[in-house]
Design a protein that fits this description.
Layout: H1 2-15, H2 17-25, E1 41-44, E2 53-55, H3 60-65, E3 74-78, H4 89-101, E4 106-111, H5 113-116, H6 120-145, E5 152-157, H7 159-170, E6 177-183, E7 204-210, E8 216-217, E9 220-221, E10 231-235, H8 249-256, H9 260-281, E11 288-291, H10 295-298, E12 311-313, E13 327-331, E14 342-352, E15 362-369, E16 373-380, E17 388-397, E18 404-411, H11 415-427, E19 439-448, E20 454-459, E21 466-467, E22 472-477
Parallel strand pairs: 3-4, 3-5, 5-6, 6-7, 7-10, 10-13
Antiparallel strand pairs: 1-2, 1-4, 8-9, 11-12, 11-13, 14-17, 14-19, 15-16, 15-18, 18-22, 19-20, 19-21, 20-22
Helix pairs in contact: 2-6, 4-9, 6-7, 8-9
GO molecular function: apolipoprotein binding; heparin binding; lipoprotein lipase activity; metal ion binding; phosphatidylcholine lysophospholipase activity; phospholipase A1 activity
Family: Belongs to the AB hydrolase superfamily. Lipase family.
Keywords: Calcium, Glycoprotein, HDL, Heparin-binding, Hydrolase, Lipid degradation, Lipid metabolism, Metal-binding, Secreted, Signal
Length: about 475
């Protein structure tokens, strides 16, 4: 039923797309409003009430009544499409997290439920209108109390991300809004559109976006896949998120009750919100993401460089840097808060002594650090081992083990596996005395993404560098032969 519901939404969106585009064309010209009130409700968040204090457009006394502080920055939360017509719980959690991180800010919730609680294509059409209203509201603050738009940070979720983009593009004058954050910006009716018809890097001095649900169904995805910011983050590749599979519906029901079914449907989409909240609540566990061409390259550990601003912090504490071209960053996360993991690239040099015979072993690795240990981490190579070659792969850890000082590397296998291996050996001749041919593991080179430290490990037993099924070898730090600079 869940899948049918989601499919219906997408199909409905496609059917009405032509109608929407025709209506959209008439909206391109920006017209300044003369009205004394706006449809959007601007609620200043306070710690004392969950409903906030409403600031009314063109009514200065409400700024005083709500204790709006013009000397402090403004963060405005903009929600997305609404199915039930009520503000979702995450909005208040984010507002509280913002205040806990930095109490010296104004937090406003832009409530546009009247226009968001519509059929999806109609809500999409309304995003321009709401963007216009937010622009008008910010211009009023600037004109009436000299509040600079550069001190404004819009955080928009789903459709709210594009609302924020329109607000940034509609605001008059040459100066831009300070920052816009798009939390899994909506995909249907925005994917593939020109920068003027969606959130784009041109909409603010700095734009960042977190993409968490770009997995396609019938050619459409809930979240937009294309880059829309200066820095676009793709946690776990951006297509889907750990802990959000339908198999986890029972966990969600246990946590949320019957609404857990809804939580399962929106889990990956809303993960963008909770990743951002996580960055506010856990200052000591900020997630680092790395510039990479695609997730497959990232999964090989090939992109863990921070040189020349190749990495950045996901969420509220991002390093703001305007770039001439959107930069796509990747990272892995846990299934729950705190989401941070520690990224490591492992490069292992294998020599397969059985000429012309490819083998496809499974390995496990155990790490000893100065703080903690990590045991029996599985490794599966995406390709078999042939000849003399170095293989690269990514390992992530949930905990900080400190500086890595020892590695135990095991060729997983049983006694039966080993007997089969021996049988294979008898068929294939070799000329190295009585010793069985196997794998030679010369070095293990490691790069820690979070610290950028490079280390080289050599076999603890210099005389015996061969590895066989069901056997484990210990590697210790040795003279660093990993000094080649990254290009």
């Amino acid at each position: 039923m869940i899948i049918v519901c989601c499919t219906f939404v997408f199909v409905s969106a496609i059917v009405q797309e032509t109608l929407f585009k025709d209506m959209q064309n008439s909206e391109h010209t920006r017209t300044k409003k003369d009205q004394q009130s706006l449809e959007t409700k601007f609620q200043l968040y306070t710690d004392t009430t969950e409903e906030g204090c409403q600031i009314l457009f063109n009514q200065l006394e409400t700024l005083d009544k709500c204790s709006f502080n013009a000397s402090l920055p403004l963060v405005m939360i903009v929600h997305g499409w609404s199915v039930d017509g009520i503000l979702e719980d995450w909005i208040w959690k984010m507002a509280a997290a913002l205040k806990s991180q930095d109490k010296q800010i104004n937090v406003i919730i832009a409530d546009w439920l009247t226009f968001a609680h519509q059929h999806y294509p109609i809500a999409v059409q309304n995003t321009r209108h709401i963007g216009q209203e937010i622009a008008d509201f910010l211009e009023w603050l600037e004109e009436s109390i000299q509040f600079s738009r550069s001190n404004v940070h819009l955080i928009g979720y789903s459709l709210g991300a594009h609302v924020s983009g329109f607000a940034g593009s509609y605001i008059s004058g040459t100066n831009k809004i300070g920052r816009i954050t798009g939390l899994d910006p909506a995909g249907p009716l925005f994917e593939g559109m020109s920068p003027t018809d969606r959130l784009s890097p041109d909409d603010a001095n700095f734009v960042d976006a977190i993409h968490t649900f770009t997995k396609q169904h019938m050619g459409l995805s809930v979240g937009i896949k294309q880059p829309v910011a200066h820095f676009d983050f793709y946690p776990n590749g951006g297509t889907f998120q750990p802990g959000c599979h339908i198999m986890h519906v029972y966990n969600h029901i246990a946590q949320y009750g019957i609404t857990g079914i809804t939580q399962t449907v929106k889990c990956a989409h809303e993960r963008s919100v909770h990743l951002f909240i996580d960055s506010l609540l856990h200052n000591d566990k900020q997630s680092t993401a790395y510039w990479c061409n695609d997730i497959n390259t990232f999964d090989k550990g090939m992109c863990l460089s921070c040189r020349k601003n190749r990495c950045n912090t996901l969420g509220y504490n991002i390093r703001e840097e305007r770039l001439p071209k959107s930069r796509r960053l990747f990272l892995k996360t846990r299934a729950r808060m705190p989401f941070k993991v520690y990224h490591y690239q492992f490069k292992i040099h294998f020599i397969n002594e059985i000429q012309g015979k490819q083998i496809d072993p499974t390995f496990s690795i155990s790490l000893t650090g100065t703080k903690e240990d990590a045991k029996n981490l599985p490794i599966t190579l995406v390709e078999g081992i042939n000849g003399n070659k170095t293989y690269s792969f990514l390992i992530t850890l949930d905990t900080d083990i400190g500086e890595l000082i020892m590695i135990k590397f095991k060729w997983e296998g049983t006694a039966v596996w080993e007997n089969i291996w021996d049988t294979v050996q008898t068929i294939i001749p070799w000329t190295k005395g009585t010793r069985r041919p196997g794998l030679i593991v010369k070095t293990i080179r490691v790069k820690a993404g979070e610290t950028q430290q490079k280390m080289t490990f050599c076999s603890q037993s210099i005389e015996n560098i061969h590895l066989y099924p069901a056997q484990e070898k210990t590697f210790v730090r040795c003279e660093d032969r990993f000094r080649r600079q990254e290009k």
